[in-house]
Amino acid sequence: MGMDPRYIGEMNRAVAPAAPGEFKPVHIGPIRLETPVVLAPMAGITNGPFRAVCRASGAGLYVSEMITARALVERNPKTLHLSEFGPDETPRSLQLYGVDPEYVGKAVALLVDENRVDHIDMNFGCPVRKVTRKGGGAAIPAKPRLLAHIVRAAVHEAGSIPVTIKFRMGIDEDIMTYLDAGRVAQEEGCAAVALHARTAAQLYSGEARWEAIADLKQSVQHIPVFGNGDIWEAWDALRMMRATGCDGVVVGRGCLGRPWLFADLAAVFAGQPPQDPPNFGRVREVMLDHARRPVNWAGERGGMLSFRKHATWYTKGFPGSASWRQELIRVESLQELADILGEASGAIEFPPSAMRVKRGKKGRTQRVALPEGYLDDRLDATPPGAEAETADSGG
Fold first, then answer.
1. Which of 54, 126, 246, 255 is catalytic?
2. Quick one: pLDDT at residue 1?
3. 3-class DSSP assignment, residue 63
């Protein structure tokens, strides 16, 4: 039995299931993805416990939250902990953020020499103001020579470990950088690229512009291109790939509070309709299993602190969830979480209206802050200072 039509958004009602052989497995270096799906790296979210919850739902590549190159080279204890993977986690995919070719090269060498990773993804899409105003994140692709030097250092030190990069369309409507970024990635030996089809000025507002993904695919023809932006339902992935010709999709906010989206994606790529979303009883089971994982990883207080935001995402849209939220954002123990969730009937159906409710980053726009005179010489390859390397991420 397929998904109840109530759960299928209007734009997806006419989407046909995948035909046999329509979508091919994707290779990222030696890594073969039977299901062409990647979990987007998200700071403070895609830690080991969350990746494990997502992996339990379906196949794909599950990328870690962002690790900063300089902190890794300096062997910062928190950074080293965040860069660890579970004993059964494979492939081990880590997102690295750096602004200086020297430190990026040293960080990649450390990861490879100590056998810590199977794949390295690099973040050049962060739109956070305190990052871009120092010349980091989404500002870097505006200087293609600097971008090339950073990517070259990573690829050189990675050896047989595949390196991919993720970026946005550009700074704003006047400064588009994604085609240059794709060209640099292909020329410097990256194994794939991913485009979030918004500018840094858009942040997470409005609609993702999938036509840019199509443009990038036409420009970058020798390595896989992944599309990112507005994958809220599994059917969205089929629409994106058919509309753009991209090789796979990157899923970010769509899976927050809904890790079963990966099972839905596996189903539609296999030509099957996804199942109905779980009722509240099943959601409660998933939540408690998820919460136990960060508690085992970071202790009860630290684990519950990291889980609080997930609790509000899981319950979003359910009747009464607005009143629970005040309790959930203060929950301090697994027992307290179980008690709060036990107050509601497990038979409550998942609300159809919650299928496309946006979670995570809020929808607003910004004027992108850049260093004074940053765009005066776009061919300048001078790295920004260490202050551009921060633990914030996005893209």
1. 126
2. 58
3. strand
Q: Show the domains of the chain with their CATH numbers.
A: 31-274 (3.20.20.70), 280-346 (1.10.1200)
Instruction: Judge whether residue 222 has pLDDT over 60.
Output: yes
* pLDDT > 90 in the chain, percent: 84
Show Cβ contacts of residue 290 under 8 Å, excluding neighbours closer than 6 positions: 49, 50, 53, 259, 307, 310, 314
Residue 390's alpha-carbon distances to 163, 170, 233, 259, 301, in angstroms, are 21, 20, 32, 28, 25
Share of the chain above pLDDT 70, in %: 98
- Two tokens at 223? 């390595």
Q: SS3 string of 323-368?
A: HHHHHHCCCCCHHHHHHHHCCCCCCCCCCHHHCCCCCCCCCCCCCC
Q: What is the pLDDT of residue 17?
A: 84
Residue 246 annotated among the catalytic residues of the structure = no
67 forms beta bridges with 96
The whole model's pTM is what?
0.95
